[in-house]
User: Fold this.
Amino acid sequence: MLTGKQKRFLRAKANQMRPIFQVGKTGVNENMIVQINEALEKRELIKVSILQNCLEDKQVVADGLVQGTNAELVQIIGNNIVLYKESEENKQIQLP
Assistant:
């Protein structure tokens, strides 16, 4: 689990990032989870955008992504979800 200080640090880092995945009306699927997992391994911190035509609530989408990828939910801001997962091989982010 992330501490409040670590979440603030990650939120600050994610602030300038652009979303690299979009969740549409089909919601979260297996293929998306596999791709997000790969991106988390490379980058550790990613932003996922929820499109307006998504039928699921953003909290449900976030829970699905967190369970599928075993990542930490850093924040949900507007229609964006910020996820963090420590990389096993490409560790780049040093948490405070």
User: Anything to note?
Assistant: The first strand starts at residue 21 and ends at 23. The chain is about 40% helix and 20% strand. The two ends are 13 Å apart (CA to CA). The helical segments are 4-14, 30-43, 58-69.
